[in-house]
Amino acid sequence: MPEAHPGRVPSQRILRTLAAAFFATAFLLSGAHAASSKKEVASKKQATSTKSAAKPASKSPAKATRTAKAPAVEKTARGGRNVTATLSKRGGKSVVTVQRRSVVRMAEPARQSFGQLAGLHGTDDVLDLKSSVALVVDQDTREVLFSKNDQAVLPIASITKLMTGVLISEAHLPSEEMITITQDDVDTEKHSSSRLRVGTSLPRGELLHLALMSSENRAAHALGRTYPGGIDTFVAMMNAKARSIGMHDTRYVEPTGLSSGNQSSARDLALLVNYAYADPTLRQLTTSPERVVEVGSRTLQFNTTNRLVKNPDWDIGLQKTGYISEAGQCLVMQARIAGRKLIMVFLDSAGKLSRLGDAERVRRWVEATQVMAPAASHTPVASAHAAS
Fold first, then answer.
1. Residue 123 falls within a domain, yes or no?
2. Are 220 and 232 in contact (CB under 8 A)?
């Protein structure tokens, strides 16, 4: 057998060494890959677990907790409810507790009228009227049957429109002349609404009807604006007319009554009612129960602001209502009661229907007492036409 060379490694041994090294390297690489895969699986499981923990434990609406990554917040939801979210720890997990509570909105206190501010509502009277100012006068004899703070000067709201009607009627302007409602007629004092849109055109007579029957503010302002000389001249004429019929406590600043600057006393307004009653047009329009008006393609129905006009128990010859917060609920009327023509003035009544209730109280009182003869102690009301 030949002898092996001492400086060489047999070829078989080299092959075995290389094979062992190859397999060792492969084993190490597979182990590292397996470890990496285990780490990825563990990471995915942890992420899945975290997402699962973020979901509600139950879909029942009674549950109100959920995980949140954001801090606690508070916001208002629809329907007048507040939603409060509170972040807290529970069982090692972050949860959000959601609470809903109703919002209680406090009503703004009602603005006091001038009469309330002056303490006039504290005045007692035998009829327990809700109006702080009242006056009842026999139109024929000028006998004062009832009075309460009748010299107090207060805002008169839309009673103003009665003087507007007097001037328009006496001016004898063409009743069929078309007048267009403009932006100038829009209420910037109280921002009241109107169905007479800007651009609406109606005859002057129709606007007068709506102003007196349903107290349409844009109609009244348009009448004053289109008066010869314009609105300033018209207001000046209103004040001049008031002085001419003895209304010395009265001041007008515009033709609708929306401004609290239009002020008068019950005694002055009794003079105005007596004066206006002599005009058949004013009697007819103020006691009209309703009116249907064609406005372009629309048909609008307007109604009286005084439901007593439709009441068969009442025989009303002339009337006008009024309201702004500074004036309270107001009413002036001429009516026949127990065979007598009476003028009634009610100012600064507190409730929406209380002015009508006061008129009913006066009517029942007059019917019950059947006052027929003037008493010497009563103060007469001067004739409304004496200075005209």
1. no
2. no
Within 8 A by CB and 6+ apart from 142, the residues are 380, 381, 382, 383
Residue 106 confidence (pLDDT): 57
Q: Give a yes or no: residue 227 inside a domain.
A: yes
pLDDT of residue 25: 53
Q: Which residue has the tokens 């109006």?
A: 131
Q: What is the pLDDT of residue 350?
A: 86
Is residue 289 within 8 Å of residue 310, measured between CB atoms? yes
Residue 366 tokens read as 């007059």
Q: Does any domain span residue 267? A: yes
Closest CA to 254 of 186, 160, 338: 160
The total of other beta-carbon atoms located within 10 Å of residue 224's CB is 24
CATH number of the domain bearing residue 343: 3.40.710.10
Please report the pLDDT score of residue 296 as a whole number.
Answer: 85
3-class DSSP state of 19? helix
Contact 165/377 with Cβ under 8 angstroms? no
Residue 160 belongs to what domain range?
A: 130-369
Q: Does 320 reside within a domain?
A: yes
Count: domains in the chain? 1
In the chain, which stretches have pLDDT less than 70? 1-110, 371-388
259: helix, strand or coil:
coil
Please, what is the end-to-end C-alpha distance for the chain in angstroms? 165
What's residue 174's pLDDT?
A: 98
Per-residue pLDDT at 107: 57
**Residues catalogued as catalytic:** 158, 161, 215
Residue matched to tokens 């503010």: 217
- What Å distances lie between residue 72 and 23, 52, 98, 220, 349, CA to CA? 59, 21, 10, 57, 52
d(CA 245, CA 230): 23
